[in-house]
Structure formats: structure tokens, C-alpha cells
What does this fold into?
Amino acid sequence: MLNDDYDLIDNPTPRCACMLVLDVSGSMTGDPIDELNRGVKQFVDEVSADDFASNAIELGVITFGGVVLEPVSMVPLHQVEIQAFSAGGQTPMGEAVTRAIQTLDDRKRDYKNAGVSYYQPWLVLMTDGAPTDSYEAAAARLKHIAEQKKVLVFGIGIGDYCDFEVLSKFCPSERPPKRLAGLKFVEFFAWLSDSMKRVSTSTPGTEIALSSTGGWETIGI
It folds into this structure.
């Protein structure tokens, strides 16, 4: 167990891992990256302000723009320090999703080893374009585990040039991707923070993780 994971022993609160997989490629330059930064900061601030949720929710961030990076490892949200993202490069979305799946699998194993209860993790995939790498295997794997209820996947398309046909290949059939209306990142992350806080007060193993996403139908256009 890593030193950081002693928190799992000191704080046995049931956990819910939330992974943000964010497109920061060159096409996100300007207002899109600025609004994304605002939205993610708001999400962290709002959930951190909730004493219970800040210990129950763990956040990881993977970005893909030229290269795939993990600026935030999977840690309790109250420990997260967000640095502003910058835009540049191409869109290696397949590699980013593969890394996200592995990170979530590893974290679930940590929970099991520490005897900590957990909710099925959430994965938010946001992009304004289409992958520039080989993405098919990653998309098929993510869709498969989502449809097996092993992870809740939320696909968000940004702007007018997102390839929704491709994005839908990463998402379960019962929850197709949504187009973000305008650049309403703040509104989306407000919905996400509210949903995560409600999940954190539920009982692991119940269907609350799904029922709490009822507002999902209001996201988008």
C-alpha cells in the first residue's frame, strides 16, 4: 500500500472514485480551456466544502492534449490541488481512456485490500473533437464495463465539431453522450458536484448512484 493510502485505514468512510478525462488539445485554446478550468475549480471547491463528501469522494484527473498526463492522482477530494490546464497538441483519447480504466481498477483493488466499502466509480469524458490515436479497443472496453455496471460513464461533447458518433462508442447505450450547450462548463460541474455529494451519503451497493443522475437529462442542448 502506498503511503498516501494510509488514509484508507485512518478514514474508513465508503469511497466513490470520480475520474475526469479531459480533452486539452489545441482546439480547446481560448474560451473553452478557460471555462473548463473554471468549471473544474468550482467542482473541487463545492465538494471540498462538504465535510462528509470531501472525505468520501476521491478525484483523479487525466488530460489528453499532445500527450496523456495525470495531473491529479486518485486522492480524497479535500487533498486535491488543481493547477490550471493549458491547451495544445492532438487528441490521444484512446490512450487517456485506457489509462483511466487502469487507474480506477487499481483504486478499487486498494479499497478491497483495505476493507473499505466503495461505490462504483464515475468517469466523465469530455472532448471537443475526435481521437487522433487508435481508440477502438479502449472505447469497446469502456462501453463494456459501463454496461456491466462496473463504472458510470458520462460522455460530454463540447462545441460544434465534436464527433458524437465516435464519442458514443465510449458510452453505454442507455446513457449516450450529451452536447454541452454553449460553454456551460460551470453549470455541468455544478450538476456533477451535487450528484457526487448525494452519492456520498447513500449506501454502497444500492441504486442511488443511478437515481442521483436524474438531472442528466437536463444536461446539454
